[in-house]
Every structure is written in C-alpha cells, then in structure tokens.
Input
Amino acid sequence: MIQIKLLNRLRIFSKFDKLGNYELTTSLFLSVLAFFTLCFYNLARLGFESHHSEIYSIGGIISFILMTPWAYSILFKNKSSESLSGESALITLAALIVIILTSFTVDYIGFFALHLLIGLGYLFFLSGLITFLRTQKIYFSVIFFLLSSLFSLWFFGRVYSSYLSPLAFENFVIGKATHDTMFHSSVLEMFKTFGHASTGLNGAPHFSYHWGSHWIFSRFSVLFNVSSVKTYNLIYPVIFLPLFFKGTFIFANDIFQLYAKGKSIVKPGLIFLMVFIISHIGFLPYSFTANWANWESWIESESYSLSLFFFFLFSSIVLYSFSQKNKLKQKIFLFCSVSLLLPLLGLLKISLLVIAVVVYSYIFFRLKLFKNGYNLLIMAGLLLFSFYIYKVTIPVEIVGEEKDNFYLFHFLKRYTLNNWKGFFFYIHYFFTFLYIYLRLKELKISSKNFTSYLTSNRLLDVEILILISIIGFLPGTILKIDGGSAYYFSDIQSRISIALLLFFVLKDSFKQKVFIQFTKRISLLIPIIGILTLSNVFFQFEKAVNSNFKSRLELTNLYTGEVEYMKEVPYDILEFISGKKSELNSKIREMINLPAKGLAVSPKYTLLNNLQKIGNLHKDEKKKLCIYVPKSNTLYWKSINNAEKITPFFIPALTGVNSLAGLPDTIKSYEYGFSAYRDSYNDYTFVQPDINSICKYSKAQLEETIIMLDSTGKFKVLDCK
Output
C-alpha cells in the first residue's frame, strides 16, 4: 500500500517544486556519496573476505535515513502546506530513533524489521531518483551527478588516506593500529557487552567520558552484526559522515525557511552545490593550510562529526519550536529541544555543549526572553541538565587537583608556522569572514544605519557567529590542551559559517544577487579555484589508493612463495602499473591475490582471527568470560604490536570480552580510560600476576570463566582446581 501510494503521489510533479526540490536534491546527492563509498570500499578489499550482505544492508539504511524526510513530504503534505523550519530535522531524528530501537529487537524481530527498513530505503531512493530525472533538465542532471561523483572521489580519498582503511583488520598484522582506534573500539565493544563505558583492560569498570558516539555506534554495530573495527571503518564513513553533511543542509534550509516564513520555493542550483563542495574540499593545498591548524578533524574525529550533526539537528528543532503558531505546542517543543536535547551534546563532545549553552544564553538575553516566566524555566533546565552532563562525562583524571595547564596562546604557538602566525586568522576563520562580509554588503551597512540594524536584530546571525568565534578561540588561548584538541572549539565557527553561507546562497537567488555579484568580481580567480579544488580531489584519492597499495605490498612481504612483481616496489600505484602493457594484468592479479596469501601464513593473523571468533559470541556468553594473557606471551605482548599503550586494547576491541590483568606495566598518564584502574595499579598482582592470583580472582567471581591465550594464539580454559 505504501508503494502504491508513493508512486501515485510521484505522478503529481506539480508538487515537486514546493515540497521536495531542496530535500530531494540534497538527499540524492548524499545518497550517491554513500553508494560511491560503498563501491570503492568493496573494490579496495578485492582479494580479501567481503560480505556483500553488509554492503546491501548499510546502503539501504543510509537511504532510509536520508530519503525519509522527502518521502514524508510527498506522502503526507499538501501543495499548500507551509514549510516549517525543523521539520526535516525532526523526521531525520525520528528515523534514527527507529533504527536504534530496531537494534534492541535483533534477538526477536530485528531481522524482519531491519530488512523492512532496508526495503523502504531502496524504495525511497529509487522513487526519488526517478522523480529527479523526470523533473530536472538533462544538463542539470548530468552536471549534478558529475559533481556528486567528484565529491565522492575526494571523500573516499580523504577518509581512507588517514587512519581509517578498508583493510583495517588486515593492517593489524603489519603493525598498523593507532591508539585512538583501539581505545574507541574497546569502549564500543564494552557497550555492546555490558552496556556502559569501559575499556575492559582489567574487568569492566565504568569511567567518565563523552561516550555518546560509542553508544550510538554500538547500536549500529549490533544492528548490522559487525565488529567495532568495521563499524569505525565502514559504518561511520558511509552512514554518519553523510549525516553530518545532511545536518549542514538541513540547518541551512531551516534558516532560510525562517527568513522566508516558509513561503518561498527552494531550488538548490549548481552554484549552491559548488559552494558546498569547494567549502568542504578546499582550494588551497593541504600541506599549506595545515601550517595554521586548518585540519579536517570533522572527518577524523567520529565524536566531533557526530556532535556537529546533532548540533545542527537540535538547532533546527529549536527553530521549529519558535516557528510554531500554537502557543502550547511551541512551549512543549521549546522545553524539549532546549532543556533536554541541547545538553545531550555534552555526551558527544563537551565543546559543542559549551557553544550551545553560550549561544542560547546570548539569545536569551539579547531577545529579552527572560521577561517570560516559562522561558526562565527553560533556561534553568538547560543550565542544570548541562551541568549534570558535564559532571558525568568529565574524566576523573582532571578532577580534584590543580593542573599546570595555564598557557597563553598555546594552540596558536604550538600548531602554527613560526613568523607567519597571523595567517592563522585568515585561514582558520576564512568562511566566517566571508559570510560576515557578504551579509554586511547585502545590508549596505554604514555608520548611519548600523545602530538601527543592531536594535532590530537584523544582525543577530552575525553577532552569534562572532560570539562563537571568540568563545571557540578562548580555550586554546588560555589553556594548554594537548593533542590539538583546542581545534574542537575553534573549528566550530567554520562548520557553522559554511551552513550560513549555504543559507546566504539560497536567499541570494531570490533577492539582491549579492553572492552572484561577488563571484563576478573574482571571476578571474574562479577557474584557478576550480583547478586547485580538482587537484585536491585527485591528490586525496591517489593518496588513499597508495595507502591501500602500501598495505598490500607489506602483506605480500609475508608470503614465502614466488613473487614476480610485488617486491621492492615503491609505494606508488601509478609507478607500479607503469611499464610494459603486457604485464599489466599479471601485476593486477598479484596485487589482488598475493596479500591474502601472505596474511594466511602469518601467526599474528591466526591470533587476531581467534580473537575475532570470540567476538562473534552472543553478549550473554561474553559476560561470563574473562581473557587472561600471560606477560610471557610474546606473540601477543610484543609481536602483534610493540607499543605498550596500544597492545592491551586488542583483547576488548576484537572480542568484546574484558581482560584480566591486561594493563601495561606502567602508564605515564590516566588518559584513555586508565583512570578507572587506579586501584588495580595499587595491587601489583594485577600488573604482573601469577596463576595463583588469577585463580584467586576466578573463585571470587564465580560467574566468570577465565580463558587463557597461549603462545600459539589459541585459547584454553584456565583450570584453577
């Protein structure tokens, strides 16, 4: 019935402009991105084990999330309906909640429910694709898919040229495992098994952390029945990064709807798409912009990108609350969105919670909302719940003692080029400066009308953006924040200014054409910007391919049989395939087949595979197990990854079972969850235990069976009789 109703509605294309143009165009763009990434991921795993059912399921679910708001507008809204800010955000949030709830029914009706959602996802996508092709001009469709393909090339290259990889599990054999990856995978697996944040290095004690992303990822990991490693290396790039872009699109449109009062038809044209693409890819060389801390941690940090997505989503729902005409409905939505949803950002990233609280507080006083008693209640709820979230997520290691972290301009001094530090503001705040310039140009600000614009709140967006920039800059200016984490404060303005810039382009197409005039003034630079952007696209894609090729070469080195081409070769795919055309097929066959053969003869792979088999057990069985690895087992403690900080996390990250005495001998800090094991370090038997102390623990924990990993990479139950 749903299919028939949807197809009947699709015949009424006169509704398309009013209800679905923006939603369909942007959702289809991101769906193409997700499908391209899935295809390239599969190609990058040629020669290794692949599960096509996972690719099919993930593709259907991301289509369901992206396309549901458009399907809703076609199925349930009339042409005369007024577009309200926040509707798409609410529907997207509802779709996510449905998927997360489905993950809790896996043992019951989860299989049926999952495939129902997958089927709806593909139905919505195909219906949307047909609608798009039938309603758009041919030239626009061709350029649209060309742009989405180019953006997908860059996206795949950018995601998989860093620490994420389609060969992530296989890379463990050749020592490619980062501290962050193993730590986050351990926390995710402990959520799946025990339901709380822990690293599982010596039992599963809870530790305070912003664990929201781990919990969400754990539900998707359960839903698709995949490991934590695959969750971070496949589900995160294919589902959650497109959702981050979706949040940007939603927020830009909702600001526009608030401006147009829901009465204007939104048509995202080629200029809109090109602004989106260039603003995310960038047109300056990455090696140049990195000199001024202009990184892309919104891609590399899962918690940051997810928190940005929910920041945009929750902000749009706040706008939805303000746009309600029914006073009771407005009060309910405003309380839920401000007092309940915004504080939840602290579970994902504390920086976004700080920005959200500061911005709403500014709006609260700037618009004099304090004159209403109900608004005072909402503000009190926001502050109290935010404080509670802060207290439950702040790590124990930074509570209760004064730290020597006062350091003026630490971020600027540590992460920018000497003698050129002033460029930091031009590079880091480029899009903020651009948006403010365009807005002031649009309003024709002068000394005579500035005060009137200010008092009439017509500059509120500019005020908020400046406030976010200042607040985001302060932590790295007065505190020493190691690891470049001050970026998670200072970069927020850039993500928000890009969304506002997209809003400006939408608005500009109806009114003064300020952006068009601006592009005409820099018309000579546009071809250069285009060429430089394309250069970044192919640079990142080649970098990802070379990273994959390097892994294949190193795995081939483990193979003891005959190797003709894959030896003593530079890590450059183009150089490898160069030479005689007659040898090309043989080179490609070796590149696909030999790495898996090298993997098969590796003792480390046998060990990792055995760990993964335990990871396939049901969580009820995992709860009853503990894994003990003697420090004399050099295959695990030295060979698998000769890094004392990383190796302990392999057990919980790959099995979902907590270790016993899995702590490193010494630690330099209590970061990465080590604060939960202070008592264990006071009891030396858990750092360098013997069999007697292990058996003593086993008798105290009657419900747990201890299995020991021996030097051959096999498990045996520890006999403590």
About this structure: The beta strands are 625-628, 659-660, 705-709, 715-717. Residues 528-600 form one domain.
